[in-house]
Amino acid sequence: MKEIRIETEVIKLDQFLKFINLAQTGGHAKLLIKEGQVKVNGNVCTERGRKLKVGDIVEIADNDSYKII
User: Fold this and answer.
1) Superfamily of domain 2-68, CATH level 4
2) HEC letters along the chain
3) What is the pTM of this model?
């Protein structure tokens, strides 16, 4: 599991995917989320505007998991 530090209190899921260079564009992030390839805290998340905070864990299908610190 990789730890990712954010400088803000929260970050939206689609922005997070771009921040960690997993999605090249907002459209690519939206597609990953819509296809159910992203889990937040163990649950599939289809809300690209989902707000992530410190302690949340994001898992990507066929990829690593990331803990927000």
Assistant:
1) RNA-binding S4 domain (3.10.290.10)
2) CEEECCCCCEEEHHHHHHHCCCCCCHHHHHHHHHCCCEEECCEECCCCCCEEECCCEEEECCCCEEEEC
3) 0.91
